[in-house]
Amino acid sequence: MSDENKPHDDHGQDAGHGHDDHAPAASPEPDHAEPAGTHGAERHDEAHAAPAADAHHDEPAPEVHPVADAHAADHAGHGHEVQAEAAHGDHDAAVTAAGATAAAAAGAAAASSRTPVWSDSGDAPFEDVDTTPVYARGKTGRKKGKSGGGNETVEIIKTIVFALLIALVLRVLLFQPFTIPSASMEPNLYEGDYIVVSKWSYGYSKHAIPFSPPVFEGRIFGQQPERGDIVVFKLPRDNKTDYIKRLVGLPGDRVQMINNVLHINDQPVQDVVISDADAANMYGMPVIKARETLPGGKTFTIQDYGPGNQADDTPVFEVPEGYYFMMGDNRDNSVDSRYGVTENGVGLVPAENLIGKAEIILFSWTEGASLWNPVSWFSKVRPSRFFTVLH
């Protein structure tokens, strides 16, 4: 026999014993039987209504077997309150079990919603774990990492840009370095000398800016250079090439070479030979050094190969307003204002082409030194010329 039929047998047995055990209840007293039946009916209705009211719970209440309900109803009609109360007790147990299940589910949900306690190993996420899905948390962290790397790159770029701007401002307004490429200014400047030029000495023109952009004409904050200054300027015939010479003629001067002697405003410039040692240049010509003093008192050393050379006798050069006359200190080995533009020379130099005044020799290397040959930085160095102030 299956378990499903067992309650029916019990019902039958209970029914048989019910009439024997509860015989006094069978006496014809309607005042007691009717209330008992009514109470049983009310219990029976509550037993069916209460589960319906709790039907919304997550866990369904245990089902009361229909045979038990029928049994309770049958005996309720005979006033068997004990059986009705047993059925009601089964219902209360079912409701209690359903409430316990719902409370457990609510507790589990609350526990899962609380922020987890993280260890000290650095495994706590940076995002809000209450609102960020589990599958997206790792992606959020990686995005933040990428954002940080991008910010670092931006900062590096800003640093480079600011450094370049500072270097540009210093180069335009204050100083500019140059390397001497030839021997035209010997014995004061040698090929391989690394010099610094002050940019504020004569004011600023478009040639003070790299690549000489045509932003304005003439000079701003212009100042008159002095006779005898060593000047860096743009070659007038191309306005691109940097030249360095000594300024010997100011606007309004008359300059001429007569028999290897410099004349300014028809007056010979005083010079004194300080060395006629038995030396010769690469062509076998004797090298003579002399101390020359320009009008105004500026004194410096020049180098000459003696009379009879190409530029030892020249016509008179009249320097107009706004121009300057330049000559090299190595008088017989310098292409300067004594040679006109048509002779691939310098000619007269406009004031706008002046870049600055040579101030100091920072470093110096002999011929053969190369930036791409680090060994030459030490084998070709001339320490005696380091930090030499120019006159």
Please outline what is shown here.
With 391 residues, the protein is of the alpha+beta class. It has six helices and 15 strands. The strands form three sheets. Strands 1, 2, 3, 4, 12, 13, 14 and 15 form an eight-stranded antiparallel beta sheet that branches.
List keywords for this structure.
3 domains, disordered N terminus, Umud Fragment, subunit A, 4-stranded antiparallel sheet, single chain, 8-stranded antiparallel sheet
Could you describe the 3D structure shown?
- By secondary structure, the protein is an alpha+beta fold.
- The protein has 3 domains: 3-108, no CATH class; 126-173; 178-389, Umud Fragment, subunit A (Ribbon).
- 33% of the residues lie in helices and 19% in strands.
- It has 6 helices and 15 strands.
- Strands 1, 2, 3, 4, 12, 13, 14 and 15 form an 8-stranded antiparallel sheet that branches. A 4-stranded antiparallel sheet has the order 7-6-5-11, with no helix packed on it. Strands 8-9-10 form a 3-stranded antiparallel sheet, with no helix packed on it.
- A hairpin with a 2-residue loop joins strand 6 and strand 7.
- Helix 1 (6-21) runs parallel beside helix 3.
Describe the secondary-structure layout.
Elements: H1 6-21, H2 30-53, H3 66-77, H4 81-113, H5 134-173, E1 175-179, E2 193-198, E3 230-234, E4 242-249, E5 254-258, E6 261-264, E7 267-268, E8 270-275, E9 288-293, E10 299-304, E11 317-318, E12 323-327, E13 349-350, E14 354-364, H6 376-379, E15 388-389
Helix pairs in contact: 1-3, 2-3, 2-4, 3-4
